[in-house]
Write a structure and sequence with these properties.
The chain is mainly α and 400 residues long. The protein has 2 domains: 191 residues, Growth Hormone, Chain: A (Up-down Bundle); 206 residues, Growth Hormone, Chain: A (Up-down Bundle), CATH 1.20.1250.20. It has 16 helices and no strands. The protein starts with 7 loop residues before the first helix and ends with a helix. One of its GO terms (molecular function) is transmembrane transporter activity. Keywords: Membrane, Transmembrane, Transmembrane helix. InterPro entries: MFS, MFS_dom, MFS_trans_sf. This is MFS transporter.
Length: 400
């Protein structure tokens, strides 16, 4: 890497690219109903639309993202995006359940290119500004996640769900060619075989306490985030709020304000405040679920509080994701892609648990039980953070 730091234009490009790539994972979440009806998928199996995308993404995180430590990165990103675009085309033209579910799995698999782009931003950055750079790129990623659902709903309402996926295919294809033109080549120094590369993932997990701890923190936060965005649309559509699909889309748009926490967290990490910033992020997660329970009132007041809760929770998730990536990216360039792949795979597993548990809790025990469950995810992570704080406190006493 040269002594020159990454340019603002390159940061903007990488942030925009990650957002547009990762959005492909989430378009289907608000379109499960119309997709199921159109492809003949039974209501009982409709959840496979989202589940298979997540499974594909987790497989890609574990088996494709580590290749960023082995193969030339620009070509790997370009190839992954071409594949993703092809799978989005398959989704757009799907007329049967098996066609769409195959496409869903493929979209998840190819979209992990975003998690090769993020370490690329870290490679291009100087150590002193790496946290801020990663924070800005992750802001783009989070905006992609948050904007994808309302955008899909609004476009599908105006046209059809087929148009959503056809448009996404063109967008991802454009991103692929822009990145190929703008990114520098990056050839890792590794010359080990792929089987040895994969075998090293388990060793990295066992030998890297920072990775295990950061993954645990974010599994809690991302689990609660997935739970919130699984059950809240159901609550908003219920007789308590009577929001339309467009109203729910607007609610989701407002929630994206939480992404502003990413660059702030990156700056705090660069200044050495990761420990306390992590506590603040986890506490925001707890507050996000406490607010709707502690502030009763009229429908409008309750809706306003729920909007605030979504912003607070999203701020916690955005901040903690950056703090985690900043910490693991500091462990060495030669293992950066593998660490990132394991990190994301572990906390995405937390997200899958949160989403599945949230739907079941809400259906069987109601809204307040779902809120308590989401709060518990973050409270457990916060308790785990206390052990890190106590360790740091005892080390300072030894030094004194």
């Amino acid at each position: 890497m040269s002594n020159k730091d990454i340019s603002p234009g390159m940061v903007t490009l990488l942030a925009s690219a990650t957002g547009l790539i990762v959005a492909s994972l989430y378009y289907a979440q608000t379109l499960v109903g119309p997709i199921s009806a159109s492809t003949g998928l039974s209501p009982a199996a409709a959840g496979l639309i989202v589940t298979l995308t997540q499974i594909g993404y987790c497989i890609g995180l574990l088996f494709i993202v580590p290749l960023g430590d082995l193969l030339e990165n620009r070509r790997l990103i370009f190839t992954g995006l071409l594949f993703t675009s092809a799978m989005l085309v398959l989704a757009a033209i799907s007329s049967s359940a098996w066609m769409f579910l195959t496409a869903a799995l493929g979209i998840g698999l190819g979209s992990v290119a975003a998690q090769i782009v993020v370490p690329f931003a870290a490679h291009l950055s100087q150590e002193a500004t790496r946290g801020v750079t990663v924070g800005k790129v992750v802001s783009g990623l989070l905006l992609g996640i948050m904007l994808s659902r309302p955008a899909a709903s609004l476009i599908a309402d105006a046209t059809s769900w087929h148009v959503v996926f056809a448009g996404a295919a063109l967008v991802v294809l454009a991103v692929a060619f822009v990145l190929r033109a703008k990114l520098p080549e990056r050839m890792p120094n590794h010359h080990i075989s792929y089987p040895k590369l994969m075998a090293s993932l388990w060793q990295l997990f066992l030998q890297t306490p920072v990775l295990r701890r950061r993954a645990a923190y974010h599994a809690g936060l991302f689990g609660s985030f997935s739970l919130f965005w699984t059950v809240t649309p159901l609550m908003l559509a219920s007789p308590a709020f009577h929001l339309s699909q467009t109203g729910i889309a607007i609610f989701a748009l407002v929630g994206m304000a939480g992404a502003v926490a990413s660059p702030i967290a990156g700056k705090l990490a660069d200044q050495g405040h990761t420990l306390m910033a992590t506590a603040a992020a986890l506490l925001l997660g707890v507050i996000g679920f406490a607010l709707p329970m502690l502030v009763p009132g009229s429908r409008n007041v309750a809706l306003g509080v729920l909007v605030l809760a979504s912003i607070v929770l999203d701020m916690g998730v955005a901040a903690n994701l950056v703090l985690g990536q900043r910490a693991i990216f500091s462990l060495g360039a030669e293992v950066r892609s593998r660490l990132n792949g394991v990190y994301f795979a572990l906390f995405f597993a937390g997200g899958a648990i949160g989403s599945a548990l949230g739907g079941w809790i809400y259906a069987t025990h109601g809204w307040h039980a779902a809120l308590l469950t989401g709060m518990a995810f973050n409270a457990i992570a916060l308790l785990y953070w206390v052990s890190e704080y106590l360790t740091h406190a005892s080390q300072r006493k030894v030094v004194v």
